[in-house]
């Protein structure tokens, strides 16, 4: 087995990467950019992008970028599901109220 000569990041290196990532992603949030890998996002936050790409290994940056996009997609999907659930619950509540009202009118006529 061949020993690899890859320099593994230290705790300090990892922390610097995460700090650079967080600053870059905050800038992207302010600019309303979701996917930093898209061509139109290349000109957004250039100084923070350069810092992020210099402090994080490419594989890490690729992973963080994909997780960012996935997190936004999951958040959007969850919001849609909650809205649909609320609509169904509201419709059921309205049907139950109408049924109770009809029952009350029927009982009042008897």
UniProtKB/TrEMBL annotation:
The keyword Coiled coil applies. Belongs to the cytochrome c oxidase subunit 6B family. The keyword Mitochondrion applies. This is Cytochrome c oxidase assembly factor 6. Keywords: Coiled coil, Disulfide bond, Mitochondrion. InterPro entries: COA6_fun, COX6B-like, CX6/COA6-like_sf. It comes from Actinomortierella ambigua. Residues 78-105 form a coiled coil. One of its GO terms (cellular component) is mitochondrion. Pfam families: COX6B (PF02297). It is found in: Mitochondrion. It comes from the Eukaryota. Its main location: mitochondrion.
């Amino acid at each position: 087995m061949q020993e690899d000569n890859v320099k593994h990041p230290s705790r300090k290196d990892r922390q610097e990467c995460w700090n650079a990532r967080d600053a870059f992603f905050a800038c992207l949030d302010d600019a309303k950019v979701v996917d930093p890998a898209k061509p139109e996002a290349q000109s957004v936050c250039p100084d923070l992008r350069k810092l992020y790409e210099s402090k994080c290994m490419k594989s890490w940056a690729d992973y963080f970028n994909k997780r960012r996009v996935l997190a936004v997609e999951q958040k959007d999907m969850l919001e849609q599901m909650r809205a649909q659930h609320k609509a169904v619950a509201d419709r059921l509540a309205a049907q139950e109220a109408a049924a109770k009202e009809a029952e009350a009118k029927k009982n009042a006529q008897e």
